[in-house]
Amino acid sequence: MVCWLILLVIMNVAVMEPQEEYCRITAPNILLVIADDLGWADIGFSHKPDGFVSDKGIPETPHLDRTAEEGLVLDNLYTQAACTPTRGSLMTGKYAFRLGQLFTSSVMGPQEKESSSHKFLSKELAERGYKVHGVGKWHLGHREKRYRPTERGFDSFYGLYKGMGTHYTHHHVSHPWLGETWGRHFGDHDFHYDYRNGSESVLTETEDDEGVHSTELFTKAAVSRIKEHDKTSPLFLYVAYTAPHSPLEPDESIVAKRNNHIIDVERRRYAAMVTQMDDGFGEILSALEERSMKENTVIIFVSDHGAALVKSCWDYVGGSNKPYRDGKFTFFEGGIKSAAFIWAPWLNDGVKGTHSKALAHVVDIHSLVLSLSGCMTNLVDNKINNEDGSMSLIRALKGDHSGRDTILHNLVSTPLPLNKLTKYCSPTTPQPGNYGVIRYHNYKLFYGDLVMWCHSDLLTEPCPDLVFVSGRAAMLFDLEIDPYERVNIAASNIDVVEKLAAMILEYSKDAPSQWVV
Questions:
Q1: Rounded distance, CA 492 to CA 485, Å?
Q2: Cα–Cα distance between 360 and 365 in angstroms, integer?
Q3: Which residues contact 493 (CB under 8 A, 6 or more apart)?
Q4: What share of the chain is helix, strand, coil (3-state, %, to 5)?
């Protein structure tokens, strides 16, 4: 009788679009995989339409490439320029400045307090009946229990709370010049298995797996969650690898056997970390297939931002964002343009295996996941209450690549305290003042106190000559004709600068601290 009812349901929705038919039957499982510091030129699928060939050699990633080529590659998905702001925006659907994550990580205390009241995606999904499991890197608050994953909606979490750790001994890595000031927060063991026991969170620290590479451990944990999953409920599996983030500690057996096309030894060691992540992704896919879950799973892959490029910086391990400019911690394209794709079993032939040019931001992943989890029959018109998200990714999956027209890339509305993470590679990095970065259609504007910002030791090359408009420095690029941000056209487009600057100032009214004008 049940089988006939299912058949009748399928017959009744046969004229609907594939996604609508699919959602009428069941809410999908969702697998969200995040790579850590993966550069644009560090994976094969991201740049094939442009014919770009990395002079450094592209790591072997057959499982990710194959899945991307069977899904929809996102050529214009943007993130924030650092780990925590990207994760915060993804989890809340809000731009990072609204969360108090103006410029950097939430390892330090105040940002945690700013964002503690915001409801996380994991909590939303748990309330919709999902089993929610997290594996890998958290980096969204840990000092108090209420900031930790199992208090944010996760049924279980296995991994590290902080931003980076040694891959074999699983100890947090100290920033070289922060040791004296923040030493009590660095160098400790940071590997945890937390789970829900009824209404209580059980927090445990594990040292049983010391000596095993973190990528291997995260893969095993993800596979275990799939094998143990009760299929009467949908699954949200959040896999946040710490690869290929520093420190450069690859599996030496992969270095010896793989990526032999890469001549540079350092690059090959970096590539091994990317390849090991890809191997893990392949194991996760196999686990889904073995349990007949893949045909009911949407897969989202994203890098949290571009690779770190400055060799003198503690975060550099050999990544590449070519052909784009600069990298991690900057808001040039190389720092915020993410290698990303979406795979879904119901993609039609006009979408499957294509690249979307739709402009999108990581907050739109929040919108997408909430839409899919609700199994909505009108995904284009439905509005998600997440403030900054859009329907751009939902439309792209249906073949509409119009995208969003605006992204606020960053807003620093007040100088940050000198004792916070305002200096990155060395204590001499200038403190950032007030500035904003916004994208509007093909234009991208940097506006504000850019003189100090442009002298940061995070930049691999000098900024183009600054133009001053209304007393503030401006850099304006037309990314349609200048995607690599070489020519500042602010002087000849004052009207565009003024329009986009007004948009930044309007956003600043909602900032935790007002823009100083």
A1: 16
A2: 9
A3: 443, 476
A4: 35, 20, 50
**Exposed / middle / buried, residue 211 (Cβ in 10 Å: 0-12, 13-18, 19+):** exposed
| 371 Cβ neighbours under 8 A, 6+ residues apart | 379, 382, 384, 391, 394
Q: Which of 56-65, 388-397, 422-431 bottoms out in mean pLDDT, i.e. has the lowest? A: 422-431
Overall size of the chain counted in residues: 517
- Cα separation, 450 vs 473, in Å, equals 6
Alpha carbon 177 to chain centroid distance? Answer: 27
Token pair for residue 36? 């850590």
Give the Cβ contact number of residue 28 at 10 Å. Answer: 25
Buried/exposed code over 380-399 (b: 16+ C-beta within 10 A; e: otherwise):
eeeebebebbbbbbbbbbbe
The whole-chain average pLDDT of the chain stands at 83
Summarize the confidence of residues 493-508 as an average pLDDT: 95
CA nearest neighbour of 443 among 500, 484, 378, 384: 500
pTM over the 0.85 mark: yes
Domains and CATH numbers, the chain: 2-397 (3.40.720.10), 406-508 (3.30.1120)
- Estimate to the nearest angstrom the gap between the alpha carbon of 294 and the chain centroid: 23
Q: What is the DSSP string of 92-145?
A: HSS-GGGGT-SSS-SSSHHHHHHHTTSPPHHHHHHHTT-EEEEEEE--S--SSG
**For 411, how many CA atoms within 13 A lie in the half-sphere containing its CB?**
29
